[in-house]
Amino acid sequence: MPRRRVPTLLLLGALSAAPGCAGSSDWLRGEINRSSGMSTKLDPAVVAAGLREALEQGTARAVQQLGRENGFWSHPALRIPMPEKLQKAEGALRRFGQDKLADDFIRSLNRAAEQATPEARRIFVDAIHRMTIQDAVDILRGTQDAATRYFRRQTETPLTQAFRPIVAHSTAAVGVTSGYKRLVQRAEPLGLVDTGQLDIDDYVTRKALDGLFQLVADEERRIRLDPAARTTELLRNVFR
């Protein structure tokens, strides 16, 4: 039978207040108190509220940074590169002085990803609201990227479904399709293009999600480890 998901804070409140449920509330408090780096004196409801706030802050920052013009392009570690099947062609074109053609195509891939990324915000918020008590405990007791792993499990499928049509529209609007055709046209006579099963929209979607989850993981680690990243009293009380 699938788990029934209800808002975490409501469940925590019910466990704390309902008659005869003291054992469950004590168990949860004990689980949270054993979590690395967390306060051992806070009520589980407060800890859960802090976790929610940390997750919402981290995901909002990631979406804001990447879901704007040059969000991917100006981030060296997350910039979407030439698809592997076209990298041999890229090298040849650059050797023949066709750097602009290659650069324009790569930039257009990143523009498409940047235009799709804002859609992730509502999906992340929905995942936060659907957390169960056990989800919260597992995240608190988990690794520095436990929340990111949770998000990836919960949101990768809906994010892919939401991103792909936006990416498909964007690749046409920002010139990915025309740039791809020009690149292939120049490289094909040289025998340097392997376009078999190359789906540009799928490639951009996968790379956009990889970059987004990487930045979410970075934000999660910052909030867990850096006191300066805890921008509210609640976060400072919980992550100390």
Biggest beta sheet attributes: none
Number of helices: 11
Radius of gyration: 22 Å
What is the terminal separation in angstroms? Answer: 38 Å
The arrangement of helices and strands along the chain is HHHHHHHHHHH
Mean pLDDT: 76
Q: What oligomeric state best describes the polypeptide chains here?
A: single chain
Low-pLDDT parts are 1-28, 31-40
Q: Count the beta strands.
A: 0
Helix content: 55-70%
**Alpha-beta classification:** mainly alpha
Shape field? elongated
Beta-strand content: under 5%
Structural write-up:
This protein is mostly helical. Helix 3 packs antiparallel against helix 6, helix 3 crosses helix 10 and helix 5 runs antiparallel to helix 9. The longest helix is centred in the middle third of the chain and has 28 residues. 68% of the residues lie in helices and 0% in strands.
Core attributes:
240 residues; mainly alpha; 68% helix; elongated; disordered N terminus
SSE layout and pairing:
Layout: H1 8-17, H2 22-33, H3 44-66, H4 87-95, H5 99-116, H6 120-129, H7 133-141, H8 146-173, H9 176-187, H10 200-225, H11 233-238
Put the structure in a nutshell.
The protein contains 11 helices and no strands. By secondary structure, the chain is mainly α.
